[in-house]
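Hey, quick one: can you model this chain's 3D structure?
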Amino acid sequence: MLLAVVKYSRTFLNLGCQFACCPKDEKKQCGYMIWVDPERDDRAFGVLVKLMKKKMQVEEDAKKWDEELGKANYELREIKNELKAVRQQL
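Sure thing. Here's the predicted structure for all 90 residues.
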């Protein structure tokens, strides 16, 4: 006999709600699932949704900044190589 595990939903519809499910890996689960949270407060749900959206935006911004940093580092290496070539010619 296996005991169910309690997890938190990460979907917008049920964000932060607890549920019990089969403890096996996703591909091997038996399909057992039951909600264990009491009715949620709509205000709290709204706050959770806003936080989740902010988290997603921050992750997108961080990815863009990482790409820009990579481009800047590439340009810096190119400039250093050009300077090195110029110094060697002098």
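One thing worth noting: Residues 42-89 form the longest helix (48 residues).
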